[in-house]
Amino acid sequence: MLRDLGVINGPVLLFGGPYSNAQATRALLHEAAARGIDGGQLICTGDIVAYGAAPQICVELIRQSGAAVVAGNCEKQIGAGALECGCGFEEGSTCDMLSLGWYPFARAHVDEAARAWMRACPDIVSFRHQGARYAVIHGGITDVARFIWPNDDETVFDAEWRAIEAQIGPVDHVIAGHCGLAFIRETERGQWLNPGVIGLPPHDGRQQTRFGLLDGGEMRIHRLRYDAEAAAAEMQRAGLTQGYDAGLLTGYWPSDEILPEDLRAPSLASG
Known about the structure:
It is a single chain. Helices cover 32% and strands 19% of the residues. α1 (22-34) runs parallel beside α2 (55-65) and α7 (228-237) runs antiparallel to α8 (244-250). β6, α6 (154-168) and β7 form a beta-alpha-beta unit. The chain has 8 helices and 11 strands. By secondary structure, it is α/β, with parallel strands linked by helices. It has helices at 22-34, 55-65, 73-79, 94-108, 112-119, 154-168, 228-237, 244-250, and strands spanning 2-7, 12-15, 42-44, 68-69, 124-129, 132-136, 173-175, 183-186, 191-194, 209-215, 218-224. The strands form 2 sheets. The protein has a 6-stranded mixed β-sheet, with helices on one face. Strands 4-3-2-10-11 form a 5-stranded mixed β-sheet.
């Protein structure tokens, strides 16, 4: 499914992965309001619901905001009533095992209206900005849960670009999410832009999360400050203590094995 937003020449606030973190979601919407950005200029790369304690609240906040949302793997899985998150974690990995804790909670704490809304989220959002055409996806278009990293080989970006254009025609730039890291990658075809996620820090030892602001044809990555202590405490009260609660405070994911080796935190790389 494709949703075309038409022309947006003003600023566009880009974000991914609210991850059931109500405090971060509210902070992001406050940031948008402070910048004079309304729902027609908000675009999310998906995964509204995941690790945190407030899945239903986050869905409601995002729906009320009017933001355009691409279907992430969590929208697809929860919308379909699936029993696992479909995140692309290797079977038996730490992240895969941790999902046995947070995913059932997330699936059980959204109502049918939220699931129906998730099922209606498009696979691709497109728009034009400052004369260029942008495609917004979740992970990859060949696999919604594909992890695409800033240091991947050019062939990875080229293959995904070709797959996108096979579906919707030529695009100048691609906006994607899923991997949890914000980055800007110059490719032979154009820029591959990942604005990061707001619900979890980018494994850098700081509590602030990330969003992107596309303005004047250029995306800049910004830090998002929110009440991480309150979000972590809410997770602990809900029994969501698989490690992501601590990650909100330490700035490190409970496991970095999903990351390419040269992107892992030095202090944790040895295991």
